[in-house]
Amino acid sequence: MTSSSTEVAIIGVGLHPFGRFDKSAMQMGAEAIQLALDDAGVQWKDIQFGFGGSHEISNPDAVTRLVGLTGITFTNVFNACATSASAIQQTADTIRLGKYDIGIAIGMDKHPRGAFTDEPATLGLPRWYGENGQFVTTKFFGMKANRYLHDHDISQATLAKVAAKNLRNGVLNPNAFRRQTLSEEEILNSPVLNYPLTKYMFCAPDEGAAAVIMCRADIAHKFTDTPVFVRASEIRTRRYGAYEVHATSAAVDEDCSPTVYAAKAAYEAAGIGPEDVDIAQLQDTDAGAEIIHMAETGLCADGEQEKLLADGATEIGGSLPINTDGGLIANGEPIGASGLRQVHELVRQLRGQAGERQVPTHPRVGIAQVYGAPGTASATILSL
Predict the structure, then answer these.
(1) In this structure, is the dihedral angle defined by the CA atoms of residues 199, 205, 209 and 212, taken in order, positive or negative?
(2) What superkingdom heads the lineage (predicted)?
């Protein structure tokens, strides 16, 4: 694999809070864009191109009517939960190609309440089908977590530790949806949706928007004294044998996970290894996903997660902070904005601007990972 010598820097980030709001996804997207512009110290007329992603909106490019009809190139993308990670990759790669100097990646979404339980109605199924934990997505999450915990001797209590940690982190994040702590016991004793996953081990589809402005690294000093560099952004799909939602009859082989390949490709492109990562944002659609993705991104070996969680390694003050803004469990997941939220948090942490949730060891390298059904994964590496 070859890559351009052009380096890419992030000079501005903007995040509309995640939750439930009396406004459209497009309005939230416009607000996130303006926050990113303010952060970068540029105006909309300075942006030369954009990539935008959404699940609910078929034409995210229409956000330009709210921020300025300047005639820029704008491409809409959708890649399930990897949607905004795809926007990030395409924005960075377009700059690396030398076609433009400065561009923006945008994500926005507005999902209905209780989408995990209400979506069966769109398939002609009664509401109780989802309420009983029988929707295919949550079934898959439960089966995947159950197999992984069984194979690597990890307890259900460790899942509760993940959820409790992320909810604690969410309390420190003014942009989070869920800002209330729950004890590990409360999480374990909440209704089981799909064993071993209980109600509070899941994220909630919700609303929000995020934007990231990038430019050629050699001009970043014109805009900021604290550029954050996009060292790599790689996307991979699954291989035959991956354990996947929506059907596969192949024998299960965990090494086939697209996250494994996306992470390996990102480390190679960045010229580093997982041992160099100081902070991580991992897809935690459920608590089991965070545990699985810790190993799939190379941050630990399979089965080491229980001890790492017990020792506090993944806490904000630990040796490997994970999901310092609360992750999906605290923020929820507006699909089009989720990966950009991860990058927003990494940028804030690397700059030392994360407030109460700032990692005290001054992180210099971060990884963001997202995974979208039916088997698309992304890994993005940022550094100072």
Answers:
(1) positive
(2) Bacteria
